[in-house]
DNA sequence: TTATCATTTCGACTATCGCCGAATCATGGA
DNA sequence: TCCATGATTCGGCGATAGTCGAAATGATAA
């Protein structure tokens, strides 16, 4: 069951235009961006982008909310996290040297709150 | 340039049969599994699986090496790591609460060498 | 070399995806 | 209400991906 949604999310991301849009939204953080602004920044026709945003949103990767005339899209970090979790599940098969680099990747995503003290 | 290969990897994984095969290889660890054994375990025709393994290998996610009559496939953990890194790049946009769950996912992939003391 | 087994490639069919122009829907302002 | 604007949906065409049976390739052992 989880399998189907993972495939859907991966299929949604397996497209240059959608991956660009998604990454832009990921970088935009919680506030997100209006659809038109996205189309302008990515330099794609609004209707094409709209279809791609629909696909991303069906896959649970983004969501849109209306604000006046605009629809503001933002990344759904929770589902993004679950997808990554699904991909790295049981990745290590007992060999810690496989798993270690993955940890480093996550720790490199260090934000500003890295210092524990 | 990195973009293209990320899309290729995601497209390769955006397929139930291939994702099953890949995950099975990921769990199999470095030793990997012969193609026929994979086909048997996944219950798919050998030629179909062969095509899918070719796609995965072109995407850099798996590799095959010959051992006698069999070709043994194994996951390429390095490229898998790079893909995850690409997906979570700049994920936090300054908000640490976005990034923290991702770190937890990576830390949950804890292997046996988790204990720091 | 010849037989045999594991795997891969070939060929053709079907289904689905992606893109674009045009029409439609939703909102805010005159 | 009527118009302007931002966004989405609809219709279609062309291109691509997926599957399977059948044939070919590669490797081994006698």
Give the SSE map.
The structure is a homodimer of 117-residue chains.
Chain A: H1 2-13, H2 16-28, E1 33-34, H3 35-42, H4 46-58, E2 62-67, E3 70-75, H5 77-87, H6 96-108
Antiparallel strand pairs in A: 1-3, 2-3
The first copy, chain A, binds a DNA duplex (30 and 30 nucleotides) through residues 15, 17, 34-36, 39, 45-54, 66, 68-71.
Key attributes of the depicted protein:
homodimer; 117 residues; mainly alpha; Arc Repressor Mutant, subunit A; 6 helices; 3 strands; DNA-binding
Description:
Two copies of one chain form a homodimer. The first copy, chain A, has 117 residues and is mainly alpha-helical. Chain A has a single domain, classed as Winged helix-like DNA-binding domain superfamily/Winged helix DNA-binding domain (Arc Repressor Mutant, subunit A). Chain A is built from six helices and three strands. In chain A, strands 1-3-2 form a three-stranded antiparallel sheet. In chain A, α1 packs antiparallel against α4, α2 packs across α4 and α3 crosses α4. The radius of gyration of chain A is 16 Å and the shape is elongated. The C terminus of chain A is likely disordered. The interface between A and B is large, with 50 and 50 residues. Chain A binds a DNA duplex (30 and 30 nucleotides) through α3 and α4. Chains A, B: InterPro entries: ArsR-like_HTH (IPR011991), HTH_ArsR_DNA-bd_dom (IPR001845), Metal_resp_trans_reg (IPR051011), WH-like_DNA-bd_sf (IPR036388), WH_DNA-bd_sf (IPR036390). Chains A, B: This is Helix-turn-helix transcriptional regulator. Chains A, B: It holds the Pfam family HTH_20. Chains A, B: Keywords: DNA-binding, Transcription, Transcription regulation. Chains A, B: It comes from Novosphingobium piscinae.
């Amino acid at each position: 069951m989880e399998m189907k949604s993972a495939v859907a999310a991966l299929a949604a991301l397996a497209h240059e235009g959608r991956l660009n849009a998604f990454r832009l939204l990921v970088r935009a953080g919680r506030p997100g961006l209006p659809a038109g602004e996205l189309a302008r920044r990515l330099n794609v026709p609004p209707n094409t982008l709209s279809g791609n945003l629909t696909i991303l949103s069906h896959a649970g990767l983004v969501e849109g909310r209306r604000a006046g005339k605009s629809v503001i899209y933002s990344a759904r970090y929770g589902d993004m996290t679950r997808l990554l979790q699904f991909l790295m599940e049981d990745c290590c098969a007992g060999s810690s040297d496989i798993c270690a680099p993955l940890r480093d990747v996550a720790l490199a995503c260090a934000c500003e709150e890295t210092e524990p003290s």
